[in-house]
Design a protein that fits this description.
The chain is α/β, with parallel strands linked by helices. The chain contains 10 helices and 11 strands.
Length: about 290
Amino acid sequence: MAKLIDGRAIAEKVYVDLRREIAELKSKGVTPGLAVILVGDNPASRAYVRSKDKMCRDLGLHSVKLELPTSTTQAELLARVKALNLDSAIHGILVQSPPPKQIDEALIVRALDPRKDVDGFHPENIAKLALGDPTGLVPCTPLGVQRLLIESKIDIDGAHAVILGRSMIVGKPLALLLMQKSKNANATITVVHSRSRDLEKITRSADILIAAIGQPNFVKAEHVGDGAVVIDVGINRLEDAASERGYRLVGDVAFDEVAGKAAAITPVPGGVGPMTIAMLMSNTVKAAGAISLA
Ligand code: NDP
């Protein structure tokens, strides 16, 4: 049976370090500040924004939560972002995804001050990741996956990491991160997606298999080689009349059968999810230090 990689416990460890860094910044007169903008009333987005705001408050960060109506125009949202770019109490800005249809998300991301782009999606930060420039902000979920591996003492150096999914949020930046010529990286990377041939053969050859495709229970035992490490990024809602909420969360990995074959595995929930929020907090603290102490 696979060892369980406990994302909640590892996130708590991250917070211990972060609290120390935050205290240090505060002693220099800097309170890191995060602004989260929610446009519309998507229930999942609302829940994410609430937990980000709560975590900020727990850590003693300055937290601003802007809730805008679904009818918000592109121009109105841009004006909000520009005001936050100029706000010296704010070091991190994120616009919760997905925004309503009239909003061009890519354009909003480009309008962010890249130093405050704590999601790490601004082209300048993506370029820095590709260049291996450590001054950039790295997207939170890939950073969280790497930290899970490091804290679980899984050797990334030289390992074959297969990433299922090539989104700009997870797969692509994660590939860039784990292939860096640096400590806690140096992996051999294969990225597979919906057009890949022989997907199962490729995933079976992974030392580290990371699933980020948004397909409930897609990865089965036959996709996994004996002794592989399996990281499940997926968060999918499955209808479940027996549950109070009417649904339950499952990952992209069929946990029970894969756990019988893997050496280590993350659960859903309680794996990558808590690490994503922890890395958002970490990026906010990093941004605050870079902006205020420059
Ligand atoms: P996207 O829908 O943007 O991308 C999905 C990727 O998976 C695409 O590259 C797609 O291929 C590929 N894919 C989809 N179906 C298949 C298939 N059957 N076989 C092979 N490849 C496939 O998703 P995201 O990257 O945004 O999210 C992925 C999952 O991770 C979701 O469940 C999401 O909820 C979760 N997530 C979790 C986070 C966390 O904090 N734990 C944070 C962010 C996301 P193609 O490019 O060819 O279309």
